[in-house]
Amino acid sequence: MNKTKIDWCTHTWNPVTGCLHGCQYCYANAVAQRFGLAFAPRIGDPGMRGASKYDSPEGMDTMLELKNPYISSGRIQPYPMAFLPTFHRYRLNELERATKPRTIFVCSMGELFGEWVPSSWIVGVLDAAKRAPQHRYLFLSKNPARYLELDSMALLPHDKNFWYGSSVTGEESVAAYAMSGADLNLFWSMEPLLGPVDMGASEGLPGWVIIGAETGTRKDKVVPARKWVEDIADFCAAKNIPVFYKANIRTHFPDLPPSEYPWENAE
Q1: Tens digit of pLDDT for each residue in 197-245?
Q2: pTM of the predicted structure, to 2 decimals
Q3: Where does the chain show beta strands of DSSP type E?
Q4: Could you identify which of 49, 166, 224, 244 might form a hypothetical disulfide with 177, taking C-beta atoms 3.0 to 4.6 angstroms apart as the criterion?
Q5: Confidence of residue 89 (pLDDT cuts 50, 70, 90)
């Protein structure tokens, strides 16, 4: 678990890293490629003690489960498989050792709820979080249908310190992000905001919205329009949905109102 500069949480925790979505604007992929190893470790390598191999769907590259940290040149390598999905099982006990309450973004460096992720990985992560109820957990996925699938099997915790987020960039219909269950804490992360978002088109609404701009130096980097932000803000104000404006959106629009956290009024 690490302190973070992400402004809507205090810490990140990455028991699962890597993703197969292939988003061009993904900061996590760039970080993992930068700090990953120059070679792909194989089962049997000295640093792969207790590692297990999983086959990805559609013949994609192999995923790994690591029971111990991968050590190379005397140092723990956080992304030994770069951005290929990896379960760092040895990280599951980190939460219980931190007694001071924290707001934790879970799997900031990967997609925990991707279709390719074994359910056993997800359950392992959720169970570890339940064993440390002193913290608040924020999950974020581009595949919220997996939330519903897990909930239908009674595997998704409904604890009030669990928040389930959907990534909504404006490129897709928000109707795909409707989720049932009034006792679930839901939020939408509109980062990067790549186009207008018609929140009224969704059958279900979140309890919190985060708005942010695209970062990095991508050639086709999108600069958000003021109207996109104002339309979202006006809709949320009418529905009493708190909005958090990331620092990177304020660089474009410094006069945005103060950010809000949903739990500040609930606690």
Answers
A1: 999 888 788 999 999 998 777 777 888 999 999 999 999 999 999 999 9
A2: 0.87
A3: 2-3, 11-13, 16-17, 52-54, 63-66, 71-72, 75-76, 86-88, 103-106, 136-141, 162-167, 185-190, 209-211, 243-245
A4: 166
A5: very high
Which residues, 6+ apart, have CB-to-CB distance to 115 below 8 Å?
Answer: 57, 143, 146
Angle between helices 145-152 and 119-130 (to 10 degrees): 80
Q: How far, in Å, CA of 222 to CA of 239, rounded?
A: 28
Residue 17's closest CA among 69, 71, 58, 95? Answer: 69
| DSSP symbols for 14-67 | -SEEB-SS--TT-HHHHHHHHHS-SS---TTSGGGTT-EEEPPGGG-PPEEEES
Q: Residue 1 corresponds to which amino acid?
A: M
Token readout for 73 is 């040149």
Q: Both tokens of residue 128?
A: 């570890």
DSSP, collapsed to helix, strand or coil, labels residue 209 as strand
For 224-229, the CB contacts below 8 A with 24+ separation are: 224/192, 224/193, 224/194, 224/249, 224/252, 225/196, 226/252, 226/253, 227/196, 228/170, 228/193, 228/195, 228/196, 228/197, 229/193, 229/253, 229/256
Spatial contact of 86 and 77, defined as CB atoms under 8 Å apart: no
Sign of CA dihedral 62, 66, 69, 73: negative
Residue 180 CB coordination number (10 Å): 9
**What is the distance between the alpha carbons of residues 132 and 97, in angstroms, rounded to a whole number?**
9
